[in-house]
């Protein structure tokens, strides 16, 4: 059963997002007003070293007032290639420049409310370039054994769904 968007108008917008109101027709002919949030694409990157450790950031998210492990991530700038954005974010947030990136997966973290797409990449090597330019984004950066990831997710230490999905995929690819 497919819903049909008949119209959509902006209610609020800024550089980061746009809140729109859509007139949606349901399969039975009824209409409803549905708010949606339009977001820029997000690029995510990490590296898994020869010891099967993944580079992660420990950070606080004030919106949910929660702490958790994440991968380096940020919005794709206008005209920027997604893979380039992923490499840029990783170096800015961790101080590590990734080697050749591989696309891991693309997820839609909340497709009932937003059109956000998060594009996750990974590399098998990286070069340390110095302290992170955006060190304020995390309390620390660490190499975490990939074998610990499933238990960390279970304990709520990796609360972001996009990060959990990507890390579980890496766990599967590297450790089976």
Q: Could you characterize the architecture of this molecule?
A:
The chain is of the alpha+beta class. The chain folds into two domains: 4-39, no CATH class; 42-175, Nucleoside Triphosphate Pyrophosphohydrolase, CATH 3.90.79.10. The chain is built from three helices and twelve strands. It has helices spanning 82-94, 149-154, 161-175, and strands at 4-13, 17-25, 31-39, 42-47, 53-61, 66-70, 72-75, 96-98, 102-107, 118-123, 126-128, 140-145. The strands form four sheets. It has a four-stranded mixed beta sheet. A three-stranded antiparallel beta sheet has the order 1-2-3, with no helix packed on it. A three-stranded antiparallel beta sheet has the order 6-5-12, with no helix packed on it. A hairpin with a 3-residue loop joins strand 1 and strand 2 (17-25). The N and C termini lie far apart (37 Å). The relative contact order is 0.19.
Which helices and strands occur, and which strands form pairs?
Blueprint: E1 4-13, E2 17-25, E3 31-39, E4 42-47, E5 53-61, E6 66-70, E7 72-75, H1 82-94, E8 96-98, E9 102-107, E10 118-123, E11 126-128, E12 140-145, H2 149-154, H3 161-175
Parallel strand pairs: 4-10
Antiparallel strand pairs: 1-2, 2-3, 4-7, 5-6, 5-12, 8-11, 9-10
């Amino acid at each position: 059963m497919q819903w049909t968007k008949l119209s959509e108008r902006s209610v609020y917008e800024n550089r980061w997002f746009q809140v729109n109101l859509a007139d949606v027709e349901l399969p039975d002919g009824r209409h409803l007003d549905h708010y949606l949030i339009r977001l820029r694409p997000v690029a995510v990157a990490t590296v898994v070293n020869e010891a099967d450790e993944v580079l992660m950031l420990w950070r606080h998210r004030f919106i949910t007032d929660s702490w958790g492990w994440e991968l380096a991530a940020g919005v794709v700038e206008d005209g920027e290639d997604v893979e380039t954005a992923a490499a840029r974010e990783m170096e800015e947030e961790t101080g590590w420049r990734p080697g050749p990136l591989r696309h891991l997966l693309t997820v839609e973290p909340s497709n009932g409310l937003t059109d956000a797409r998060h594009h996750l990449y990974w590399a098998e090597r990286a070069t340390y370039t110095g302290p992170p330019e955006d060190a304020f984004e995390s309390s620390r950066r660490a190499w975490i054994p990939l074998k610990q990831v499933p238990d960390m997710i279970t304990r709520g230490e990796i609360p972001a769904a996009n990060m959990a999905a990507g890390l579980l995929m890496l766990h599967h690819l590297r450790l089976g």
